[in-house]
Specification:
131 residues, 41% strand, six-stranded mixed beta sheet
Length: 131
Amino acid sequence: EVQLQAFGGGLVQPGESLTLSCLGSGFTSEDYALGWFRQTAGKEREGVSCIVSSGGSSTYYGDFVKGRFSISRDSAGNTVYLQMNSLKPEDTGVYYCATVGRWCGSFYYVTSPTTHGVEYWGRGTQVTVSS
């Protein structure tokens, strides 16, 4: 059984940093790409970042990231991290990790938990950016 657990959310001030972690089990590193998505107030769910396990570990980011975030994956391939720098109040929301096929194919098309191409979702972790 595939399981994903996200950790690391919290309350930070604008401009500060936060690192999210997602621990996965029940799959191998070659089975799935892993992604981060978020749900912010009044908006559809959107892709934050995605990383492929195979080959050179290609990475993808939402346009709003603009170089502020960095995704990485541990050598075993089951844990994915999201380093978030220069956080803004509009980054406030619930952040979810998920499996995204093998190549992050659906990453830019996710708008809800039922979007095709995302097989498993973890529970979200709340990120609040406020002064």
